[in-house]
Structure formats: C-alpha cells, structure tokens
Design brief:
Blueprint lengths: L1 H28 L4 E5 L6 H8 L8 H10 L8 E10 L2 E8 L4 E5 L2 E5 L5 E5 L8 E3 L19 H14 L6 E4 L5 E5 L2 E6 L4 H15 L4 E4 L13 E4 L2
Length: 242
C-alpha cells in the first residue's frame, strides 16, 4: 500500500516537473518567426518591426503577448497606437494606427507636425516625406498637444481641404505658403504655383494635375489664381524665370 502511494506521488511529481519543463521550453524557445505590418504609411514594415522587436527576447511569443496586453505600448513618433494580433504561435500581425497629420511648421530648429484641427501632434528633428511644409502662418509660443496659436483658426480648414486635394490627385509639393491675405502658393521643385484664395480650389488643383507633364523640367511660376471653371478659355499663365 505504501509502495502504491509512493508510486502515485512519484508519478505526480514527474508530471509536474514535465509540465514545468515543457512550459519553460515553450517560454524560452517559442519565437515569433513572421511579422506582418498593416496600417503603416509613414514608416516601412521594417522600421515598425525594429521599433517593437529589437531583440530575441522581444520576439518571444509569451513575452510579446504579456507586454502587449499588460504593459504600456512603445511610444513611436506619428503613431497613435498599435495592436499585435497572434495568427499562430510563430506569426503576428502588427496593426498600426497612425496620427492624422496634414502639415508641419518650422519652429526653433524643430519641425512641429499638426493635424486637421491645428493640434501639434509631434515634434521631430527631421522632415518627413510626403507631408508639406506650411509657411507664412503667424503664431506665438507653440506647445505639443496644443493648437497652433494662429490669428485665423479657419486657415486649418483651408489647409486640410488643400492637402486632401493634393493627395487625391497624387501631387507632391515641397511647400505650401499662405500670405497675409490668405492666398496660397505651392512650391514644387523649381516651379511655383500661385493658387490665390480658397475659391474653386478643386478646379485649380485638377488643372494643376493636367499641367504637370508640361511643367516638367521648367522653372517659373504658374498663376492659377485667375482660374474660373465657368470659362471655356484658359485664363491663367505660366511665367518662366529669367
């Protein structure tokens, strides 16, 4: 009888040790082999991977799951948040939720990026491709996560409208400038485009899209401020640099 009890205890002990050993093996050797990144525009998949999976320890499935569910997420510039979804013990999908950014201003040696409401969402030491530099705005002290202190808050609606149209027409610009009267100008390499007021902006940008092949390799200013969609005859001009 005693031998039977001892045998049972031994079996239970061996079972417990085996479970612990198996758990330890899975914990230390269950590594994420494949990472898929979605929702990313400002960063490549490789960059997102380097932010979140810097070493073999962070690629451990158990550690990754624990950190994602119970720890604060990594702070990544221009990323609001992210979610890690396990599609298998060895594969994950990182879903990235980027901050909405429509432009940036230069301030005291840094580049401050703002959203459609004029809220400064990020301060960065470098310019990010695909986001226009907005110049000509008058503002005072700037603080992160606060609205840009401009005199005319309606200018952000105009910036949003303009940048959305540029994106829709796949037009990349280096700079968007607003003068004291609220007139907008674009800089695209050696070509400047004077758009004027926000009136009929959709037609102006459509016309600019049509003129891009003609403007390639030129240096000068295209005046679209006189554009009138009601007229059938072209009512704008291009002035070459002397």
């Amino acid at each position: 009888m005693k031998d039977t009890k001892k045998s049972r205890r031994k079996v239970k002990l061996m079972t417990a040790v085996s479970v612990l050993l198996l758990g330890a093996i899975l914990f230390f050797f269950l590594q994420i082999k494949e990472i898929k990144v979605t929702g990313n525009k400002k960063y490549t998949a490789e960059q997102i991977e380097s932010f979140l999976f810097q070493d073999s320890w962070s690629r451990n499935a158990a550690v990754c799951f624990y950190r994602d569910r119970f720890k604060e997420h990594e702070q990544i510039p221009f990323v609001e948040d992210y979610k890690i979804v396990f599609t298998s013990p060895f594969k994950v999908e990182v879903i990235v939720y980027e901050k909405s950014v429509v432009g940036y201003v230069s301030y005291m040696g840094s580049y401050l990026y703002f959203d459609k409401d004029g809220i400064v969402v990020e301060s960065f030491s470098a310019r990010l491709e695909g986001i226009p530099w907005i110049t000509g705005l008058k503002f005072g002290h700037i603080a992160l996560h606060q609205p840009l202190p401009v005199e005319n808050g309606r200018v952000f609606d105009e910036i949003l409208t303009l940048t959305q149209m540029l994106t829709t027409h796949e037009i990349t610009v280096d700079e968007v400038h607003y003068d004291t009267h609220g007139n907008a100008s674009l800089t695209m390499g050696q070509v400047r485009v004077f758009l004027g007021s926000n009136s009929q902006m959709n037609g102006k940008i459509s016309e600019l899209k049509d003129q891009l092949p003609v403007l390639e390799g030129l240096s000068g200013t295209l005046y679209l401020d006189t554009y009138n969609e009601a007229e059938t005859v072209t009512s704008y001009r291009f002035v070459k640099d002397s």
